[in-house]
Amino acid sequence: MLFISLEGIDGSGKTTISKMIKDNLSQKGFKVLLTREPGGETFAEDIRQMILDKKNIITPWTETLLYIAARKQHLDKVVIPALKAGTIVICDRFMDSTSAYQGYARNVGMAEIDEVQNIVLGSTKPDLTIFFDITPKEAHIRLLKRKRKPDRLESEDSVFHEAVYEGYQILISENTDRIKVVNSRKPINEVLQQVDFLINDALNERLSKND
Ligand code: TMP
User: Fold this and answer.
1) Cα 188 from Cα 166, distance rounded (Å)
2) Which PANTHER family does this UniProt record tie to the protein (predicted)?
3) Best CATH choice for the domain 2-210 from the list 3.10.20.30, 3.90.198.10, 3.40.50.300, 1.10.760.10
4) I want to staple 93 with a disulfide (CB 3.0 to 4.6 A). Which of 31, 51, 97, 129 is the partner?
């Protein structure tokens, strides 16, 4: 029905807000699926464990292909069936994460990633992508307050996280119709309000197209 992806650097607060977005939409009577990548499906969650495990040393292209493999599995088994059943799908990370993290920060190349993802994903791309904007420095402070140990990607140095942020800025400037930015430094209720506004807009557009 409507496919929404949430994007941002680690510690941007998108995961916390995602549950509130889901509750708001469910209360309005919509069928909603909140899911995540890498993961969202049994085998894709297994791939997630492998990618994020700090003991694994993974080359940039292998890492890229693992993320995309997990995405394909999740897409075919969970996302596409849900969309076909009239559900709003909210996905915590999707294809832009691979472009920013692997394409830009790991230097695999954003154009190369686009090529592979165009083949693998086909036409199933998000209708709306919300980018939770916070500087890498602020995000790092938030991450330090977390109780669990950082995973393989979170343990990368500040140069890597700055590069991920830069990668996202490129994607935002090249996809102004699809990717909308919310200020994630604001208090949580204000962030939620910004998100609600964007989703309502996208829903109205979708419903008017179906008229
Ligand atoms: P999460 O902590 O937001 O669930 O995501 C796990 C980590 O994987 C996070 O550091 C971002 C990273 N990631 C990529 O590098 N490429 C991808 O394609 C995806 C989906 C996530």
Assistant:
1) 24
2) THYMIDYLATE KINASE, UMP-CMP KINASE 2, MITOCHONDRIAL
3) 3.40.50.300
4) 97
**197 contacts 140 by C-beta, under 8 angstroms:** no
- Copy the structure tokens of residue 177: 């119709």
Q: Which of 114, 34, 42, 35 is nearest to 73 (CA)?
A: 42
Q: Which amino acid is at 70?
A: A
How many angstroms does the Cα of residue 21 sit away from the middle of ligand 1? 20
Could you tell me if the CB of 71 is within 6 A of ligand 1?
A: no
Q: How far is the CA of 39 from the centre of ligand 1 (A)?
A: 10
- Decide: pTM greater than 0.85: yes
pLDDT digits (tens, 9 = 90+) for 145-193: 888 899 999 999 999 999 999 999 999 999 999 999 999 999 999 999 9
CA distances from 87 to 71, 73, 157, 203 (A): 19, 18, 38, 12
Residue 28 is assigned to a ligand binding site: no
Q: Is the peptide bond before 136 cis (omega within 30 degrees of 0)?
A: no
